[in-house]
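Batch manifest, entry 17 of 40.
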Amino acid sequence: AEVIMMVVPEAWQNAEGMDPDKRALYKYSACMMEPWDGPALVAFTDGKQFGATLDRNGLRPGRFYVTNDDHLVLASEVGVVDIEDSNVKFKGRLRPGKMLLVDFDEGNLVEDDELKLKYARKRPYREYLEKYSMELSEMLGPEHESEKALIEELMDEEISDERDPHIMQRVLPLLKYFGYTIEKMEMLISPMVKTSHEPLGSMGQDMPLACLSKLPKLTFDYFSQLFAQATNPPIDPIREANVMSLLCPIGPEGNLLDPQPESCRRIFLDTPVLCPRRFNALLDLDASGFSTATVDMTYPLTESCSRARLADRAITKKSLLRERLDQICKEAEAAILGDGVAFIVLTHRRAGEDRVPICSLLAAGALHQHLITAKLRTRVAIIIEAADVCEVHHFCTLLGFGADAVFPYLCYLSLLRVRGCDLPLAKRIENFRAAMDFSILKVMSKMGISCLQSYKGAQLFQAIGLGKEVIAKCFPGCGSVLNGVGFDVFARDALEFHKLAYPPRGALPPLVDEEVEELGDIGEYHHRAIHETEAHMNSPDIIYKMQEAARTNSAEAYRMYANWQDKLTEQAEIRGQLEFNFDECEAVPLDEVESAAEIVKRFCTGAASLGSISDEAHRAMAVAMNRIGGRSNTGEGGEEPNRFEAMKEGKLQMGSVAWDIFEGDSVRSKIKQVASGRFGVTAEYLANADELQIKLAQGAKPGEGGELPGYKVMGKIAETRKATPGVGLISPPPHHDMYSIEDVAQLIMDLKNANNAARISVKLVARIGIGVIASGVVKGKADHLTISGMSGGTGAAKWTSIKHCGLPWEIGVAETHQTLVLNGLRDRVTVQTDGQVRTGRDVVMAALLGAEEVAFTTAPLITLGCIMMRKCHLNTCPVGVATQDPELRKKFTGQPEHLINFLFLIAEDVRQYMSKLGCRTFNELVGRTDLLRPKAHLKEHWKTANLDFTDLLKPAWTLQSMAAGSNSSMFCCTPQDHELAHVLDRQLVLRAAHALETQERVSVKDIAIKNVDRSVGGILSFEVTRRFGAAGLPDGTIHVKFRGSCGQSFGNFLAPGITFELEGDANDYIGKGLSGGNLVLYKPAMAPFKGHESILAGNAALYGATAGKSFMAGIAAERFAVRNSGATAVVEGVGDHGCEYMTRGLVVVLGTTGANFGAGMSGGLAYLLDADKANCNLSGIFLEKVEAEDAAMLKQLVEEHAKLTGSAKATELLADWQATVARLTKVFPKEYKAAIAKGLATTTQEKPVQSTPNSAALATNDLEDLRPNSVENPQKKRGFHEYKRKAMSYRPDKDRTLDWEEIYATTSKKSQQWHQLLKTQTARCMDCGTPTCHSPNQGGGGCPLGNRIPTWNQLVHEGEWKRALERLLDTNNFPEFTGTTCPAPCEEACVLGINESPVAIKSTELAIIEYGFSKGWIKPQPPQVRTRKRVAIIGSGPAGLAAAQQLNRAGHTVQIIERADRGGGLLMYGIPSMKLDKTEKVLRR
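Output type: C-alpha cells
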C-alpha cells in the first residue's frame, strides 16, 4: 500500500484541506518518484493484504460490495458476481485517488483515511521536508530596484537608462538570429503580455512541413505534440484544474530503494518558466550545496584547425555543430563527476556575430540522453538559459525531452517591443509566464498528464522529417516518420539565421532610424508575398481561381486552379513529394471509368458546426451534398429540428442571394456528429441521421474540445446547443465516455441502438500508432473511420494546437490501412480522410494510400465565398461565412450550385487520373501504393535528400495478416455485425407495441436485467422518436420496471413518454443523453443497507441529458449530470465534478457532494443539502440562500422523489421541511446570472436575416451616409463594418480651374481631425489572413511593389507613424509618387470591396510619407561601408531613382546620367502638374 501511495498519489498539490501529514508524505514521495499518471483502477496484493486504488481524476470506475458473510467483491462495474440482495451489507465505490485495503491477517477492511494516515505518520515526513527540501518561490531575492536594472540583468551589460536606443540595436540582431518575426511578436507574444492568455487563431495550418520549407527552421518545428484518443483520456485543465500541477522537485535524487530523511533534499519549482528572480535564486544556491556549471551552447562561426582534425572531420562527417554537441555532453559529465554540480545551465549568452548558437532543443536532448546512458541523470538538473524559446511549443518540447526549467532571457527582452502596453517590464514578464504556465498545462492535458513531473522527459512528441542520426543522438525512443534532415541541415539553417542577423555585406542603413527597425515578416501565420516568405496552400490566386471555377463551372478555370494548387502542394505536403507511376500502367478509355455522379457520392463535407459557421453556409453545404448524393456533416453544434423535413420547390433567401429550391431538396445533414460537448444531441437528432460520427479528435486541435466564443452563442445557436446565450462554450476534452477503446465501443453501441439504420463513424487524427487505435475501434464495431490530418480548419483554437499537434493525413491513412489489413479488419470498415484535400490529384492520392472516401471542409467554404480572412474566432467574417452577426450574414453570396460544380469538376479530374492509371472503378484505386513513387528531384535538394517514403508506400497486401483466414480485401465489403438481434430492447419493443401503435398506456413489470444488457432503452426510444418525433409519447405511456444490475448506458437517449424504473443498481452512463423520458432508481427492497449511504449509480450519469426527469434514491459516482442541458434530477449524493459544464436543467442533491462541484457550470440551477464550500468550484458559481419560490418548487420535487423511490432520506427531510430549506443552498452560475441581467437568457425567436443591397446600390442609399467616416476612438475589430470610406478629397472645382496645381486638397498633418480621420480609415482594414491587396493576383489588382498594406494600416491606427513609415519604405522607395499618381490596384483587390467600398489605402500611403516629411524623418541615410564599386544609371525616372537609392544603400557609389535639365524623368515630364506637384514632391527628392 505504501508503494502504491508513492506511485499513484492523490491530487495533493491543490488540496488545501488535506491532512498535513498525508500531504507531507506525498510531497516526500514526489522527491523520490514522479507519479504514474493516467486512468487506472489498480489492484495489488502481497498475499497478506489485498488493496485497490483509483487514479487521481477518477475516470475509471471501481465499484465494490461488502457482504454480511465478510466477502469483498470489487470490479470495474456492478453485477459481475450474483449476490443475494439480503446479503449485501454495503455498496461503495473507489473515489478519485482513494484506496481500500483488506488485511487478511486481521480480517478487516481498512478505509482510505485510516490506511493513509497510518503510513503518513509512520515517519516524520513534515520534519524531513522542513529540514531538507526548499521552495524556490520562498527564496527569491528582492524585486529589481528599477526597470533599468532588470534590463541590464537580462542583457548582461550596462545601459544608460531604460530608453537607451542601444538596447534595441543590441537586441534586434539577436531576435533575428534566433528566429523571432513580426508575426510571433504581434500574434503570439503580445497577446500573452496583454491578456495573460495564449491567443486564439482559426482556419487551421496550411504552411509547408518544416522538412519541406525553403526557409531556415529551428529543431522545435520538426516535432508535433502527441495526444490521447481512445487509448487514454485527455484532461480538462480549465474545469478540472484541481488535479493539474506544475509543482516539481529538481536537483539530485536519492536512492529510490533506500529512502532516507535527506532523500527529499531537492528544490521545488512552482513553475518551469523561470523569471529573472527565480533564475538568480537557483544560481545562488551554492551555499546550500547546490553548485552550478554553465555550459555554452554555441560554436565558432569559423574555426582554424590542424590538417589531422580536418581529415578526421571529413571521415566522421561531423559538422562543427555535431562536434560541439559532443563537447557539451563531455563538459557536463566532467562537471558532475569532478565538481559534483547539482545544476547544469546550458546557455546561449555567447551567441553573436562570431559564434553560432545550437538550438536549445538539440543541446538539451543530447545532454539528457547522454547523462541517462552514463547513469548520471538523477544527479543533476538541466536548466536552459535560452534565446530561441518564445512559444508554448518550445517550452513543452524542452521539458518533454529532459529539461527541468527554462529561463528565456531574450524572450523577456523582446517584451520591450510590445506596443500598446503601459505595463512595466516586470509585469509583462509575469503576464507572459502566467500565459505560458497555463498553456503548458493545456499541452500536458492533451495526453492525459496531470503533473509536470510525469511529463518531463516523457518524449510525448512525434517527429516528421527528422533524420535517424538526430533521433539516435538527441531523441532516442521518440516516434519518427520519413527520416529526413540531419545535423548538417541544422548547421546550414543556423548560418542562414546568422545571415539574417549579421548580413555578410554589412548592415544596410536604416530606412528611417534604428529606433523603428523591424523584424522580418515571413508569413508564418498570415499569407505574405514579399521577400522570402512561407508558401501557403491558400493564396489569393488559389482562392480566386477556385471560386471562378465553382461559380462558372469552367473546366478551364478548374484546370488552371488545380495546376496552381498542385504546385503549392508540392511545396507544402507529403503527397506533393509523390508522383504516379503512369509509365507502369495500362490506360483505359475514359468512357469505361466510373462516372462522376458515382464518384461524388464518396465525397462529404467536414464537420463545420452551426455556430462556427453561419446558418447560410451550413445550409448551403447540406443542400449541395444532398442533391449529389454525398453527405454533409453537422459538426458538434447540433442541428435545428426544422431542417429534418424535405423542402418544397421555390425560392429561399439566404444572405444577399435567393436560392432555387427544387422539390425534395433538403437542408438535413446526413452526418450527425456526437462530440464531448453533446450540443443538441437528442433522440430526435440521432434518429434523423444516415451516419453518426463520434468525434474523438479534431485535426486542428486533437486532444481538446471545441471552442465557440460567447459572441457567437446567440439566438438559434444557443437554442440548438441548449446553452446560455452570450456565454462562451469550451467543450470538455473527449474523456467522459470515450477515453478508452472499451468506452468507445460502448458509445458505438449506444448510437447504433439510438438509430440502428445509421452508419457509425469514428473520427481520429493522424499520429504515429493510429493503426492500432483504428484496429481497436473497428473491433469495437465502428462501420466507418475518418482519419483527419493536422492541417484541418477550425473556427477557434489556440495557435499552439493549430500549428503543433497531429500529423499529415497521408501518414495516418497509410498506417491505418496497412494495420487494418494486417489484422484482417480492412473489409469491415470504410476509411475516409480529411484535411486540405483540394484537387482530383489529392483525392486519388488518398485512395491509393487507403481511403475510400474523402471529406472536404475548407474548399467548400471557399467555393461559398470564404476568403480565408482567418477571423472566424472574432465573429467578423466580412462575407457572412463564419459569423453569427446578422448584419454580416447579409453579405453571404454562396449558392449550393457553386459547391456542386466544384465537386463535379474534382470528380471529372479524378476520372482522368483513373483512366491513366488503368482503374475503371474507384475501389480499384484503394490501397494501390505500388502506383506511387517519390519524385526524383527530392534527392537533389539538400533538405529533402534523405526523406524516406518506404514505409508510407509499402503495399498492404504484401503484409502477412495476423488473422487466421482473414479477408485480404483492400476496401470495405463486409458489414459489421452489431449484434442487436437479441438485445433486451427487442423484447421491450414487442411488449410496448400496443403503445407504439395506439399511444395507450403499457406497463411492463419485473424485467430481469444484468450488466451485459447494455444501452437498454435506445432502440425503444428510436421507435418512439421515429414515429412521433421530439414530442414522443404522453408522459407515462410506457412504464417498464427492471430488477437487477443494469449494464452501461441504461436509459440512454430515453424518449418522452417512457419511464424506466430500476430496483437494483446501475453502472456508468445511466441516462446518457436523456431526451424527455423518466428514470427512477432505488435499492432492492430486501437490501438491509441505507440507500442514501450507498452507491446506486456509476460515473457520468445523465451525461448530455437534454430533457426528462431522474430520481435516484442513493449516491451517484463521479461527474453526475455532466453537460446536463435540460433534465431535472434528484439524487442523494454525488461524487467529484458534479454538474460539470451544465448549461440548463435542474439538479437537487440531497446528500454530500464531492470535490469541484459546478466547475464550468454556465446555466441551469442546482440545490445542495448542507453544502460544503470547499467542495464547490466558486470561480464560476454563486452560493445563495433558497427563496420561498424556490422552496415550494423543491418541495414538490422532493415529494415526487419520495413517492417514486420510497426514499427514507426524502421522507425524513419532508418531515421538517422548514429546517430542510434552511439547510439547502442554491447554486447559481455567475455567467447565467449575468446573462439574465443583460436580458440574454430568455429564448427569443431569431429574426430572419434580410438581404443586403449590392455595393452599387449602397452608393445611392441614404442609410449608408449614417455611418461615420471619422470617430474619436475607432475600434478595429469591426471597423470595416462600422465606418464608411473617405479617401483623398479634391479641391473645389472653382479653385482647380484657376491654376495648374494638384487637384487634391491638402490638410494639416498636425490637426486632431486629420489624425482621427486616418485612425478611423485604417480601422477599416481587416488585416486579412490572405491579403489580396499587397501583391498582384489573378482576381485583379494588388500592389505590384508588395507594399505591406495591412501592417502599416495597423500602425497608423495605433498612432505609430514612424514605424508605419519604416514598413512603407521597406517596399516602396517613393511613396509620395505612388500615393499621388498610382491608380491604386491595391484598392481594386481589397476584399472589403467585395460587398462595399474598399479601404482607402492610397490616401493612407500618401499620409504616411507626407507625415514623415513634415516630421523631418525623411533624410539621407548614407551606407555604413562603401564597396568601392561605381555604378552608372541612365535616366532619372522613377525606376532609375529607385535603383539608385537601393544601390547606394548597399554601399555602391552611384551616378545618374540624365539628358534633361532636371531630374525626375517621367515624374517631371510625363505626368501633368495637376496630378503630381513638381516642386513640392518631385524636386523635394
